[in-house]
């Protein structure tokens, strides 16, 4: 009986230490997830700003081409090369 109690106490201690390790790793993973979410939001905003800038530069280029050569109705898009779809 005493041996069984000793074994159960030993198993209990082992399980407690494993549980503490898992709790620590869970907290670490949650903080990592939060930092990754922040990074994702930051990069998404940067991407949106760059796409907006590209669209405005393309529009400005189109206007400048029309002003310099009024015989051309629509400038070709192959010179630009980059067309970004609008992100909703």
Radius of gyration over all CA atoms, rounded: 31 Å
- Class by alpha and beta content: mainly alpha
Can you give the helix content as a percent range?
over 70%
What general form does the structure show?
rod-shaped
How many domains is the backbone divided into? 1
* DSSP helical segment count: 1
Number of strands: 0
Low-confidence stretches: none
Mean of the pLDDT scores? 88
How many angstroms separate the termini? 69 Å
Q: Quick one: biggest sheet?
A: none
Region (Disordered): 61-88
Pfam family, one: Taxilin
Biased composition (Basic and acidic residues): 61-77
InterPro entries: Taxilin_fam
SSE inventory with pairings:
Blueprint (H helix, E strand, L loop, with lengths): L1 H67 L20
Q: What can you tell me about this protein's structure?
A:
The chain has 88 residues and is mainly alpha-helical. The chain has one domain (1-69). Helices cover 76% and strands 0% of the residues. It has one helix and no strands. The longest helix has 67 residues, at 2-68. The radius of gyration is 31 Å and the shape is rod-shaped. It starts with a helix and ends in a 20-residue tail after the last helix. The model has no long low-confidence stretch (mean pLDDT 88). Residues 61-88 are annotated as: Disordered. Residues 61-77 have a biased composition (Basic and acidic residues). Belongs to the taxilin family. InterPro entries: Taxilin_fam (IPR026183).
């Amino acid at each position: 009986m005493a041996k069984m109690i000793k074994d159960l106490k030993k198993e209990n201690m082992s399980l407690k230490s494993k549980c503490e390790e898992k709790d620590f790793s869970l907290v670490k993973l949650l903080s990592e997830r939060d930092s990754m979410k922040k990074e994702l939001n930051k990069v998404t905003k940067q991407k949106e700003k760059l796409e907006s800038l590209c669209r405005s530069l393309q529009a400005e280029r189109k206007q400048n081409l029309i002003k310099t050569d009024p015989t051309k109705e629509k400038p070709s898009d192959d010179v630009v090369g980059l067309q970004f779809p609008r992100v909703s």
